[in-house]
């Protein structure tokens, strides 16, 4: 689970007073400007679509494309702009950089937007948001980019770090991590995958339907979909039509990546067991555990943010999940209200850097710093240390994160085992379906990679069993 994002709710204004159909480019500019200040794009897009949804569904798609595309490929856009600007892009004020990136994204990545339209709409937007003095610079820069884009001197894979930074759009510190942890060709494959849009994947809610029935409902409503390779509940939408997905109000599905779906399976929870989901919000794994145990397990979902637990509660009601109790708690503190050795299974889906889900949260590329990794690894270790006494003898503790850094994965496991001889690392190859064998590392942990495993997000999981009498 990635670490929490700052809140970023604000009122959107239409481009012209009285207009009921705001200019989506202006809204994209507003959202990107707020992201520069630390807000997260998904919340801002949701706010806008709730307050002032465009009449044309294509405008909704364009808004999402512009915001996520600029964030995902900012490094690539900045490189291209640097080839045509007479001054360093970093010397421009943030608003000007955001406008130029919006224009550059349309020129370089959107074939359906003519070059002249990309330039003209950006210059017009600059005037609208009070950047009149820079319209000449923007017009000249973007027109030069339109002329030179097919002859851009992109770095090649033979220049590994430059390629990861300027083609795959990774910040320098993250490109360095990939190159230190993985061979060059693996670093390139992962970086290229993270530069692509995230697939839309759904978890079919087995409490209300099954996968064949839901796939048929998708086909009947015009959506192109297929069963996921690994997760038995997983459905991937290859082409989504303008019609709504079937069963939204009825709770037939939950949006959830396939890698995330695997985590609840790894816990192997059973009916009547006592289960703790230690960092539970927004609830995808807790509700999955309820479905896997046919609503017959006792699940306690903890999270430090009450508003996120409210999301879990609403999601559980929508999906028909029962047996889930929630409580606000920060697990950097001992939960004195819980008795030692009181849980059969504990899931710690810990706050992490979220680098494995950069396609879904592309602003994390630019909000995260290398120093965050060390701090998060310490937090993850602290949370596991806090919940370890709550595991019964013979019980299981599952640690998972949606990232791939060594500090947050293997190093956390090693630190925990060194301090807790009563726990043993289990070999997941011995407990998972044979079809998942390629997901298990030689150490017995699970790693998923988007460039190897059918486009899944990059996740890590390790399972421990507790020995002894307490």
How would you describe this structure in keywords?
13% strand; 8-stranded mixed β-sheet; alpha/beta; single chain; 4-stranded antiparallel β-sheet; 470 residues; 12 strands
Describe this structure as you would to a colleague.
The structure is a single chain. The protein is α/β, with parallel strands linked by helices and 470 residues long. It has helices at residues 24-36, 41-51, 57-72, 74-84, 94-109, 115-128, 135-148, 160-166, 172-181, 184-194, 211-220, 258-267, 284-292, 306-319, 364-367, 370-387, 410-419, and strands at residues 200-204, 224-227, 234-239, 253-255, 274-277, 298-303, 324-328, 343-349, 391-401, 423-425, 446-447, 460-466. Strands 5, 6, 7, 8, 9, 10, 11 and 12 form an eight-stranded mixed β-sheet that branches. It has a four-stranded antiparallel β-sheet with strand order 2-3-1-4, covered by helices on one side.
Order of helices and strands: HHHHHHHHHHEHEEEHEHEHEEHHEHEEE
Shape: globular
The low-pLDDT segments are: 4-19
Task: Label the structural class.
Answer: alpha/beta
How many individual helices?
17
Distance between the amino and carboxyl termini: 29 Å
Considering DSSP H and I runs of 4 or more, what fraction of the residues is helical?
40-55%
Based on CA atoms alone, the radius of gyration comes out at: 23 Å
Strand content: 5-15%
Q: Using DSSP, what is the number of strands? A: 12
Sketch the major β-sheet. Answer: 8 strands, mixed
Q: Oligomeric form of this entry? A: single chain
- Average pLDDT: 93
